[in-house]
Design goal:
The structure is a single chain. Helices cover 10% and strands 49% of the residues. By secondary structure, the protein is mainly β. The protein has a single domain (34-179), classed as AOC barrel-like (Beta Barrel). It has an eight-stranded antiparallel β-barrel. It is elongated and about 85 Å long. This is Dirigent protein.
Length: 181
């Protein structure tokens, strides 16, 4: 009888412990950066940091497609700053691509890396995910990193901080790492 009671007490304790709500994860590291994208339009070669490399119109790689830019692919090598000033000293580069992949709204798919080379941070942070551009904030996955961010993973919240026609946009990137090595 004593063994049954001990087993019952153990099972009740286990059930109560596993039924309690989980504590939400807290980030182990947080970082806010801005990246500035100036798309090449045929007239701004000196300032352009991105270019259309595939377009539905074929040879016209200086103008985005009319129907939600569907089918355009752009590559970028954008400056990253600690604030939203385009002329601030860069702390690194955002390098990658975006694909406009939806016909009925402005949405793109991002694959890019922040290459940081400053006195505060050395290394890379890699991101991937969909970017529903018209939403105020959207999340993409942080899939890994190197250097100061070796094997880090988490979520980056993107917010459009500025937008000028189809030539310039600036994103505020709030990075929350949940796995830090």
């Amino acid at each position: 009888m004593g063994a049954k009671l001990s087993l019952f007490a153990f099972l009740m304790f286990f059930a109560l412990c596993s039924a309690s709500p989980r504590k939400p994860y807290a980030p182990c590291k947080n970082l806010v950066l801005y990246f500035h994208d100036v798309i090449y339009n045929g007239e701004n070669a000196a300032n352009a940091t991105s270019a259309i490399v595939a377009a539905p119109q074929g040879a016209n790689l200086t103008k985005l497609a009319p129907q939600f830019h569907f089918g355009n692919i752009a590559v970028f090598d954008d400056p990253i700053t600690l604030d939203n000033n385009f002329h601030s000293k860069p702390v690194g580069r955002a390098q990658g691509f975006y694909i406009y992949d939806t016909k009925n709204t402005f949405t793109s798919w991002f694959g890019f890396t922040f290459v940081l080379n400053s006195t505060e941070h050395q290394g890379t942070i890699t991101f991937a995910g969909t970017d529903p551009i018209l939403q105020k904030s959207r999340d993409v996955s942080v899939t890994g990193g190197t250097g100061d961010f070796f094997m880090h993973r988490g979520i980056a919240t993107l917010m459009t901080d500025a937008f000028e026609s189809e030539v310039y946009f600036r994103l505020r990137v709030d990075i929350k790492f949940y796995e830090c090595w």
